[in-house]
Design goal:
Length: 461
């Protein structure tokens, strides 16, 4: 028996606001090495199911002492169903020379394994405690999320905001409504409106905000799809309050190969001066004979010479088991390709990552210099799920993106969850075969998408 929900996620938790702790979120089977624009991690490659992630420790390299300095450490606990129950974070104190218990997060689940309650507790700031309560329909789609904050004076939880989601007859999101609690009255804040084509695929997503007792436009994304249901172009438009219309802002164009893998991604911005699209950058993706991502070549547009020029190259290396062992990032200086940074990954005999080293290139010494390092340790999985796992396939684009809309290609119906790097569940739902839209109305940063038994990184710029 295996957990279908949380054998990938490591988060933060605690169920009391008298002591409060928050935690860096990490994924069990290798999302640490998602330094690519997008990369898929499969349990069949990364771990045999015999172990559970139980802790990690982070170090930074001190260039003065030429030694590794302690930064922080995390521990993780699970329920009998091997669902994440509790995580704790410890920050290293130079004053005491020891790790201080600082943050915590606790999870409660529905009988089917979906998060019902998530409680954040902060030891140094109890008033920052937050609790997230989730409600689902019969299809395990999230219909309500209530966020509560801790009131120290009354020693009670106070509902601060909520998001309600309703669905179409085809189980697609219809409207997402965000509200805030003002004087014990729920007041409109924002909403996402979805429109679909005959194949039940999103053709537009519109974000509106409540202002002066009416809904006012903010942003919308239009998309076109090919016969396979894959997004071939997206146009994001901003609402112009003067004209009362949506105007072009930026666009993406995508090309796929015969295996439905993305091979190019071009990003353009709208030039209001000439009233047309102007290229910003484009990326070309190449794969090895095993179908693994091999390199990403980025070119930028020179507005002066009106030509594309090489900007960066990312190269991916794998071991005999097709596990990612190195990500080499290089950039062009003039016509010369120079090293920039690299990520190095080490695994144990069970296929689990045990160390992640990040190094930067020293152009003066012409050598790699240590920057940071993380170590990971494990405990036996009581269910010892060592059976083969069928890999689920998905891809994320555009990635990075400065739009609240992220597109995900899936090859079948898959439940999904998106987490921030503190382990907080941002959004949850079900992917359908083809291209899907995930709304992330969140700040810039990295987010982790788990769908079925595959994991990918989402980057918001």
């Amino acid at each position: 028996m295996k957990s279908t929900i949380h054998n990938f996620l490591i988060g933060k938790s605690y169920n009391s606001c008298k002591k409060t702790v928050t935690l860096f979120a990490a994924l069990l089977l290798g999302t640490f090495f998602l330094n690519a624009q997008w990369y898929l991690v499969h349990p069949a490659k990364y771990g045999d199911g015999s172990l559970l992630f139980s802790g990690q420790r982070t170090y930074n390299w001190d260039n003065d002492t030429l030694k590794w300095d302690n930064v922080d450490s995390f521990t993780f606990q699970y329920t009998p169903q091997v669902w994440l129950k509790n995580t704790k974070k410890y920050d290293y104190s130079d004053n005491t020379g020891s790790f201080d218990y600082v943050e915590d997060r606790a999870y409660e689940y529905t009988p089917t394994g979906f998060i019902a309650v998530l409680t954040d507790s902060f030891l140094l700031s109890p008033s920052s405690c937050e609790k997230y309560e989730y409600t689902y329909n019969s299809g395990n789609q999230r219909t309500l999320l209530i966020t509560k904050i801790w009131n120290n004076v009354q020693s009670a939880w106070f509902s601060s905001k909520r998001t309600q989601t309703n669905f179409t007859a085809f189980d697609s999101i219809n409207v997402e409504l965000g509200e805030v609690n003002i004087g014990s009255v729920w007041t409109n804040n924002f909403r996402y409106l979805h429109a679909y084509n005959a194949q039940n695929r999103d053709t537009s997503i519109t974000l509106e905000y409540w202002n002066a007792n009416q809904w006012r436009g903010n942003q919308r994304t239009l998309q076109t799809l090919n016969a396979n249901g894959q997004v071939t172009s997206t146009i994001t438009q901003k609402y112009d309050t003067t004209s009362g219309t949506y105007k072009n802002d930026y666009a993406h164009e995508f090309v796929y190969d015969g295996s439905n893998r993305i091979i190019s991604d071009a990003y353009s911005i709208w030039n209001t001066g000439n009233n047309g699209w102007e290229g910003e950058w484009r990326k070309n993706y190449a794969y090895n004979t095993n179908g693994d991502l091999e390199n990403i070549l980025r070119e930028d547009w020179d507005v002066n010479s009106l030509q594309w020029y090489y900007y960066s190259l990312e190269t991916y290396t794998y071991d005999a088991a097709h596990r990612l062992t190195n990500i080499l990032s290089q950039k062009w200086i003039g016509s010369v390709l120079v090293n920039n940074n690299q990520n190095i990954f080490t695994y144990n005999t069970h296929g689990y990552i045990t160390k992640w080293t990040f190094q930067v290139w020293d152009n003066n010494a012409l050598a790699w210099k240590n920057n940071s390092e993380e170590f990971y340790w494990y405990q036996p999985n009581p269910f010892n799920g060592v059976e083969d796992v069928k890999q689920d396939n998905l891809s994320v684009f555009p990635n990075p993106s400065n739009s609240p809309v992220t597109f995900v290609n899936a090859d079948k119906n898959l439940p999904y969850e998106v987490y921030d790097m503190q382990g907080r569940l941002i959004v949850q739902g079900t992917l359908q075969p083809g291209t899907n839209n995930i709304i992330l109305n969140e700040p810039k940063g990295m987010y982790l998408l788990k769908a079925g038994n595959a994991v990918a990184r989402i980057v918001k710029e």
